[in-house]
Specification:
The protein is of the alpha+beta class. The protein is built from five helices and four strands. It is 37% helix and 38% strand.
Length: 142
């Protein structure tokens, strides 16, 4: 009898611990997208997009968008904040944003120099079927 109770308790604890990982958080979705994108796992990235986005954008179009992204425009640094309101969320991410500075001088006439600034950008998510999904293509994570 004690053995049966002990096994039942252990199983209950294991099931409870296992269920805690079901679903996702907005932050995890954003971090996972950035990670999968850097590995060029575009199918996995597409799975993290909202149903509304997928209605407008096919997988093949999504892959084309991924391949056409300027890889030097943004460098993902970290998630800084997460705001959840029932089934919607906003995640703030810190990124290095590059731009081009054009300088004029008498010696070289025109000099083009890249400039990098740390900026915070917002990413909107929606909860669908216990998973957080990106509402729009997150260029800042690429």
């Amino acid at each position: 009898m004690k053995k049966t109770i002990m096994i039942t308790v252990v199983l209950a604890v294991l099931l409870t611990c296992g269920c805690a990982g079901i679903g996702s958080t907005p932050t995890k979705t954003v971090e996972n997208f950035a990670s999968e994108f850097s590995l060029e796992n575009y199918d996995a990235c597409y799975d993290m997009m909202s149903a509304a986005y997928k209605e407008e954008t096919s997988l093949s179009d999504f892959v084309d968008i991924c391949k056409d992204v300027n890889p030097d425009k943004y460098e993902f640094i970290e998630v800084t904040n997460e705001y959840v309101n029932e089934n919607t969320a906003v995640v703030d991410v810190l990124v290095n944003e590059s731009s081009v500075s054009i300088k004029f001088s008498l010696e070289n006439l025109i000099e083009v120099e890249p400039e990098y600034n740390e900026v915070t950008k917002e990413i909107d998510l929606v909860k669908q079927e216990d998973e957080w999904k990106l509402k729009e293509f997150p260029y800042v994570l690429t």
